């Protein structure tokens, strides 16, 4: 299997889903705008419109996208019978569970207490616990992905490379901007919009990319 035909097929399939991508991004922007209007007191205060609220309207929308990505990757694993898709599916299942159940926050507090972390750099002790959770989970999945990477075909490697890039962008908002959100109290609201809004937008791109893979893999590649 040659690389160029694979790339062409992936991007061609992505274009097929362009209307859906526009729709998802549009919904993201509506939620982000509603959150901003909420902050400025332009609309009646209702936490369900906040993009920061767990199980709020925006968060629930995010859960749907994450669950959709998980299902698509499980389908790809079934179709291709390659472990790399299962590993990625488990990664997004973890993302869904972490988002909905606040796993890194709950266990971050536990680890902070266990290791007796101390506040530093305007970060709370539990923030260091959360970073340790992210690091541990990241290393676990990275090792799993590397192991599966060398056992998959060219398409699987291409998918992994592209998903890895998208995940790095997601991590920038979910981890780096999240810490700035805490370290710089004066910019709390701005960083909150950047963090959660950025996560929503990137997850929409990941969903569309995963959906495009379903079309790509089901359609034979021509040379």
From TrEMBL:
The chain crosses the membrane at residues 20-40, 60-78, 85-111, 131-150, 162-180, 200-217. Keywords: Membrane, Transmembrane, Transmembrane helix. The keyword Transmembrane helix applies. The keyword Membrane applies. This is Uncharacterized protein. It comes from Flavivirga rizhaonensis. The lineage of its organism: Bacteria, Pseudomonadati, Bacteroidota, Flavobacteriia, Flavobacteriales.
């Amino acid at each position: 299997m040659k690389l160029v035909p694979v790339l062409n097929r992936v991007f061609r399939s992505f274009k097929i889903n362009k209307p859906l991508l526009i729709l998802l991004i549009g919904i993201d922007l509506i939620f982000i705008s509603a959150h901003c209007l909420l902050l400025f007191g332009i609309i009646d205060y209702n936490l369900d419109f906040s993009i920061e609220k767990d199980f709020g309207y925006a968060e629930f929308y995010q859960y749907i996208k994450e669950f959709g990505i998980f299902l698509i990757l499980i389908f790809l694993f079934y179709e291709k019978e390659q472990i790399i898709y299962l590993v990625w599916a488990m990664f997004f299942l973890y993302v869904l569970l972490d988002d909905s159940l606040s796993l890194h926050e709950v266990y971050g507090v536990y680890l902070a207490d266990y290791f007796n972390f101390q506040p530093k750099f305007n970060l709370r002790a539990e923030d260091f616990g959360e970073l340790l959770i992210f690091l541990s989970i990241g290393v676990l999945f990275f090792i799993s992905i590397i192991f599966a990477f060398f056992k998959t075909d060219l398409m699987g490697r291409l998918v992994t490379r592209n998903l890895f890039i998208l995940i790095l962008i997601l991590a920038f908002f979910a981890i780096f901007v999240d810490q700035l959100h805490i370290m710089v109290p004066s910019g709390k609201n701005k960083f909150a919009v950047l963090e959660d809004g950025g996560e929503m937008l990137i997850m929409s791109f990941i969903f569309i990319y995963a959906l495009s893979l379903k079309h790509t893999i089901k359609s034979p590649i021509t040379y």
